[in-house]
Amino acid sequence: MKLQNKTLVLFFAFLISTFAFAQKKVTSPAETVTGKINGTTITIKYGSPSVKGRAIWGALVPYDKVWRAGANDATTFETDKNITIEGKQLPAGKYSFFVIPSENESIIIFNKEAKQWGSYDYKVGSDQLRVTVKNERGDVLVEKLEYKIMETRIELLWENLIIGFEVK
C-alpha cells in the first residue's frame, strides 16, 4: 500500500472515530442558570445528573457527607454584589457550592476555592459561609437535578427533595 493511501486510510479512521465520540450522549450535562434577586445577578453552574430509577438521598448522595451539589466539577455559585443568605452575609464573588444533606435538613456551603473537581479536595478552612436549612419534600419526581433562582429564593431540586434558601 502506498504512503498516500495509508495516510488517507488513517485520516478517515480518525474522522470516523472523532464523529463517533462526538455522538456520545453526556450523562450529566453541564447546565447554567442565571437570575436576578434584588438587582443582583446570580449564576449557578453545575453538572445535571439524572435519577435513572436510583434512590438518591441517603444512597447515591450519602447523608452527612459533603456533596458537590451536582456532577463532575464542583457546582459554582457567583454573585456580582454582596448578598445575604438566610440572614448571613456573603461577599460578591465566585464560590464552589456544596451541600451536606441529612434526612430533615441540609448544610449549604459557599467555599472560596471556586475551581474544584467534585468534593475530593474540599477543605472546611476555605469556607466563606455555611447555613443550615430545612429540607422540603416535592410533590413530583424531578428526574434531572436543577436549580431555580426565584424572586427571593434559590432552590436545588432533585428526585423528591427541595433544598432551598432565602437570598436578599
What report would you give on this structure?
The protein has one helix at 3-22; strands at 30-37, 40-47, 71-79, 83-85, 88-90, 93-101, 105-111, 127-149, 153-166. By secondary structure, it is mainly beta. The chain has one domain (27-166). The strands form 2 sheets. Strands 1-2-3-6-7-8-9 form a 7-stranded antiparallel sheet, with no helix packed on it. It has a two-stranded antiparallel sheet with strand order 4-5. Strand 4 and strand 5 (88-90) form a beta hairpin. The longest helix is centred in the first third of the chain and has 20 residues, at 3-22. The relative contact order is 0.18. The model has no long low-confidence stretch (mean pLDDT 90). Residues 1-22 form the signal peptide. This is DUF2911 domain-containing protein. It holds the Pfam family DUF2911. Keywords: Signal. It comes from Flavobacterium polysaccharolyticum.
List the helices and strands and how they pair.
Layout: H1 3-22, E1 30-37, E2 40-47, E3 71-79, E4 83-85, E5 88-90, E6 93-101, E7 105-111, E8 127-149, E9 153-166
Features of the shown structure:
two-stranded antiparallel sheet, 12% helix, globular
Summarize the entry for a quick read:
Helix content is 12%, strand content 50%. It has 168 residues and is mainly beta.
Share of β-strand residues = over 45%
How do the strands of the widest beta sheet line up side by side?
1-2-3-6-7-8-9
- What's the total count of β strands? 9
Structural category? mainly beta
Rg measurement, Å? 20 Å
Helix run count: 1
Helix content: 10-25%
H-E order: HEEEEEEEEE
Alpha-carbon distance between the two ends: 71 Å
Low-confidence stretches: none
Give the integer mean of the pLDDT values. Answer: 90
**How many structural domains does the protein architecture include?**
1
The major sheet is characterized as: 7 strands, antiparallel
The general outline is: globular
